[in-house]
Amino acid sequence: MSLAVMSALSLICLDAAATARAPLPAPPTEATMAAASVAMAAATAQTESAAPETTLETTAPETTKVDAEPAPLPEAQDLAVEGVAGDPLVFAEESDKAVADKLIAYIENIDTLQGDFTQVAPSGAVSEGKFYLRRPGLLRFEYEPPQPLLIVANGGMVYVHDDALDTTDSYPVGKTPLKFLLGKKIDRDDAKIVAVDRGVDNVAVTFASEDEETEGDLTLIASAPDLVLRRWIVRDLQGGITVVTLDNIVAGKRLANRLFAAPEAGGRFLDR
Fold first, then answer.
1. How much is the pTM?
2. Residues of the signal sequence (predicted)?
């Protein structure tokens, strides 16, 4: 499998290279989460300075590398705690369980989302594209050139198509933390809540699976108090962190069945 495909699998919560069942690393520390945030900001700034402002439809972004050594990290800040020091945190008076329940209820009630995404891989490489989500079970990621990848989740499987190699690989959703986002309901017996963090205008909940076959964990970050999914973080079994930020989000719009056709199926895939 190509390195490009493996990078894509990090995005959608897969780590096909992690065949050894090592114990899951400890949850991300504030410093680790802040490093990912700094990497995201640095990558955005570097991309903006390298080319004039364009739309995703007209100009393909270039893959960018972020320095391996991040800038000094602000104290007491991570991806979930953003804003001016001293500002009140959302849901500050509510328990972690109550905050997690709010986010879970929001996720379970999502019908459709679509918009743009920016991915920062563990290596610092930046990719962009468009995403389409229809719950339960359906997801599509279209990468902008030069990344030759298309990712589709459907029927309990994730399909990764590499246009350059003309290959398609598939993997069970249930073996990835992506199941927490795509399942009709979040299985409370399986989903272990590792951490709940509050920011001045967002909240983050980190999920890990009780099933040892699930590879890695997933942090979902939503704006608050009006919850809208804004970002997720995937941490693989080796501790690598992939950050996916969502922009220009449109909720509730009808999405065509053809968007979720398995790449090798062609033509009509769903009959609904």
1. 0.69
2. 1-22
